[in-house]
Amino acid sequence: MLARAGARAHRIAASRVLLVAGLTCEFRVAHHRTRLVSLHYGFVTAADGPRRKSVTQLCETSLHRKRSNGNVVISVQGLRKEFPGRVVVRDVSLTIDKPAMIGIVGRSGAGKSTLLRLLNRLTVATRGSVVVEGRDVLKLTGEAKRSWQRNCAMIFQQFNLVPRLDVLTNVLLGTLNSRSLLPSLLKMFPQMERAQALQALDRLGIADIALQRAESLSGGQQQRVAIARALMQSPKIVLADEPIASLDPMNAKIVMDALRSIHDRDGITVITNLHTLDTARHYCDRVIGMRDGALVFDGVASELSEAAARDIYGAGKDFTEAMTSVSLDPRREVSRSVDGAAAVAN
Ligand SMILES: Nc1ncnc2c1ncn2[C@@H]1O[C@H](COP(=O)(O)OP(=O)(O)OP(=O)(O)O)[C@@H](O)[C@H]1O
Ligand SMILES: [Mg+2]
What we know:
Layout: H1 2-26, H2 30-44, H3 50-67, E1 74-83, E2 86-96, E3 101-105, H4 112-119, E4 127-132, E5 135-136, H5 142-151, E6 152-156, H6 167-172, H7 181-185, H8 191-203, H9 219-231, E7 237-241, H10 249-266, E8 269-273, H11 277-283, E9 286-291, E10 294-300, H12 306-313, H13 338-345
Parallel strand pairs: 3-8, 3-9, 6-7, 7-8
Antiparallel strand pairs: 1-2, 1-4, 4-5, 9-10
The structure holds adenosine-5'-triphosphate and magnesium ion.
Residues 112-113, 241-242, 273 line the site of magnesium ion.
């Protein structure tokens, strides 16, 4: 009886907390919004105005900090993930000793997403180690674990934005892990961070939609917002899980260009799961092939022969690379081979 009453009180308290959090999310502080708008237009339209200058100076400081994040050595040894009755990632070992753009390819169910989730600690490894800067990040707990998760930003196929919040706030939520919850719920972000968020959006060519709700954007725009949000974490490594799988070829190209530029300009390691071999070849310096949870190919893109691709996809002699392909050239018709892709994916 007492236990039931206790559980009920607990449920009521929990629902109140959720209600307050929900209301707070929707609560727009007029003063804050006015400043946001003036900062936004100062940054985007008054190219030579004093506001732009100060914002740019603020952002240069933050970018300098980001560039120095690049040179991170990651050593993965014997990484394994088992679910009841099956092995999903099979003793994977690999070393990343300099900033790189890495594509992971393999047929559906090969374990690509699980591998990224293991690196980010979104799922618990059965065994193995991931040593970064001398520490096994799989052993970190509490604040140290959260700090690692901040350092490896995740980008997902489904963007994971808050639909009813504006773009700028969504980007600013990238700093959520590094601050207490209440100021974020009240949208009380320091001017420096708002400037950084705008610069990240500007860099991705979407500063002009900073005040639009996320739900009103196209898929390509949403994915660019998600990338800007990832940049706000000042990550040491970016993990992108099928970032272009739901996009049309033109938006896929814009998003892949943006990821490549994060690597080229900021020297950050980007690891991205991709369904199409031509995208991996075109954008990645290094390609990792997975099959049944095991790493079966690890080399530069030019070493990825048709035979190696056949091995990764477990396909027969009739396999061609086009079977995995969706053209990224917006002028050409989408060239997915429906039958072939189905044969590879199933
Ligand atoms: N929580 C879970 N419990 C049981 N099995 C799981 C779980 N998560 C993933 N799996 C299984 O692990 C295997 C690998 O899944 P994963 O999502 O890593 O593959 P993937 O290579 O990313 O596939 P896709 O290309 O379709 O995204 C799949 O067979 C999947 O069903
Ligand atoms: Mg996946």
